Amino acid sequence: MLQKIHYLTLFPQVIQQGLDHSLIAKAQASGKVSLHFIQIRDFAKDKHKTVDDVVYGGGAGMLIKAPVLVDAWSSVSSFDKKNQPVGQRPFTILLSPQGKLLTQEHAKNLVQNHPEIIFVCGHYEGVDERFIDLCVDEELSIGDYVLTGGELPAMVASDVLIRLIPGTVGNEDSVTGDSLEDGLLKAPQFTRPREFMGHDVPDVLLSGNHQAIADWRKKQSIERTRRKRPDLYAKKMGKENE
Fold first, then answer.
1. Residue 48, burial from CB neighbour count under 10 angstroms (0-12, 13-18, 19+)
2. CB of 76 within 8 A of CB of 100?
3. Are 63 and 53 in contact (CB under 8 A)?
4. Domain definitions of the chain by residue range
5. What CATH number is given for 178-240 in this structure?
6. What is the distance between the alpha carbons of residues 123 and 11, in angstroms, rounded to a whole number?
7. Per-residue confidence at 225, pLDDT binned at 50, 70, 90?
């Protein structure tokens, strides 16, 4: 079960401030997870603390240098550890648009199988490929678009993972009833007042009939997914028909 996350980043304060709120802050305070921030620039050897350089073969932008990244990574892991079985060592993830898409299902696998994760936040045009070959276990993407750096994806991924740690969310039903938890979107939800601007809460939700409510929510969940996310609907229906 996930217990510790390290962040290799040029902007540790961005991630730290972004995660120092709400459930994530409570999870840290209660000891359910610990977050550690490694400033990549601290491992630059020259007096100017240079972390990037031009791309061999030409091209726009700069790359973060492999030696600096490997030294930063080695402050929390090692090549000896990397040879140990997965699940018994830090698991290194590079946030990258080239990576595997972060889904709820994949997030659960990461939380359950890796007690310690290292998030590597690239910047500029990316990182030297040799660092990826040597140190990275997995590349992870939060969507098919490009951001300035890996800090925002690291925050998103952390939020997704940490709330899955048992005890982080007070009511576990809040997790199991989330959108995407069963491959479907959540059914519509309502609170008081019962009537608002001509729109009423569906009668079934006021009936007290728990089975009827569950059936309504399931039907609404399927229909909402079909209408809003046909890609998810096709995937879900395809699995159920196998």
1. exposed
2. no
3. yes
4. 4-162, 178-240
5. 1.10.1270.20
6. 10
7. very high
Find out whether 70 and 135 touch, Cβ atoms under 8 Å: yes
As a CATH number, domain 4-162 is: 3.40.1280.10
Alpha-carbon distance 89 to 217, whole Å?
A: 41
Average pLDDT (83-89) is 94
What amino acid positions are annotated as catalytic residues?
97, 125, 163, 178
Residue pair 104/178 in contact by the 8 Å Cβ criterion: yes
The tokens describing 40, both together, are: 């990549």
Q: Contact 154/92 with Cβ under 8 angstroms?
A: no
* Same-fold call for 4-162 versus 178-240: no
Beta bridge partners of 101: 141
Amino acid at 78: S
In whole angstroms, what is the distance from residue 43 CA to residue 41 CA?
5
State residue 174's pLDDT score: 58
175: left (phi over 0), alpha (psi -120 to 50) or beta: alpha
